[in-house]
User: Fold these one by one.
Assistant:
Number 1:
Amino acid sequence: KNEVEQSPQNLTAQEGEFITINCSYSVGISALHWLQQHPGGGIVSLFMLSSGKKKHGRLIATINIQEKHSSLHITASHPRDSAVYICAAMKTSYDKVIFGPGTSLSVIP
Amino acid sequence: NAGVTQTPKFQVLKTGQSMTLQCAQDMNHNSMYWYRQDPGMGLRLIYYSASEGTTDKGEVPNGYNVSRLNKREFSLRLESAAPSQTSVYFCASRRQGGGYNEQFFGPGTRLTVL
């Protein structure tokens, strides 16, 4: 079993829909990192969180430390949100980061 | 600040050739990382360096060597490239070991080994 898992693996949505991407982890973490990667593009940071909820524009990230689960929500989705979304567990014990396999999102006009 | 820079952006090699991927960061970060990304797989750690002068193997180190030349620069060398090393390579840096510090990524190097 992978230490960081994401669901769904692939997601297609109509423009305007509310989207949820889930991340579950089995390791002790100091924080969870959500990243975005556009096709053929670089990797950019969206959120870093260790508790509760963070919001930036139409994006919301939540984390439940007890359940070892985090979600990324996109409200009023837009075709420019089409990308791969990656969650990464920042482990407590040492300097390494464990990445989930990514969720590929396609938003159709 | 340029953040994390990588060179080259694209490279095509023949099997057996060698090359070095360069990475530099101007954020005064202690930790630096090399990852590879393959279709359908998450980012996998090749090597990392927690500080200048130290390096450690990651998940997939075979066929690679690294040098942490100074605090800014962390290079990845392929001594004898193989088709299995065709991938996109990302360098990343982070302020300090562990804790609540995000990673910053370079733009990636797309490597094809024929």
Number 2:
Amino acid sequence: QVTLKESGPGMLQPSKTLSLTCSFSGFSLSTSGMVVSWIRQPSGKSLEWLAAIDWDGDKYYNPSLKSRLTVSKDTSNTQVFLKITSVDIADTATYYCARSPGSSGWYFDFWGPGTMVTVSS
Amino acid sequence: DIQMTQSPSFLSASVGERVTLSCRASQNINKYLDWYQQKLGEAPKLLIYNTNNLHTGIPSRFSGSGSGTDYTLTISSLQPEDVATYFCLQRNSWLYTFGAGTKLELK
């Protein structure tokens, strides 16, 4: 079955670089059409799509955050990474990774449980 | 950016009641509209994709409709387990945007 799980530092200081990992099983990112996205949600607020990487290695970014984001994947196509540079308090949120099957659209059919990140000095 | 406006923000309804949630886009999104359910402390879960396609395993009491800028999620007979916040998502433009959510409670 399809599962995803996010991991991250839990807490980091302002101005540092946030590194997140999405580990998944039950599918391969090398399968044509497959996409993995990162989405975040500050506590009590709505969701914000951040970035995505597809089966072909093409990358997509939220334009408002693009200069600070880097999405990548590993060569085994079982992990996706997200780096956010120069974090500040506004980056405090739960970060989710989610899969899009691509066959009929890039909707998010499976999500990880999320990893909470707090930016604090 | 395409703005997504959900209404109402809060809804209180009784078990068995028919419930309708709305989502309005700031421009035509060509039916690239999904609905997600998020229970407290959990990740969002896909209910409906591309306006009216029920995701695998989702009960048939959930349905979606709409076109252009206006979309609706309907729960035909509200169940206690449907208490959650519901978000719409547009995927027509490359900056995917979510609505602010509708929090659904039991009366």
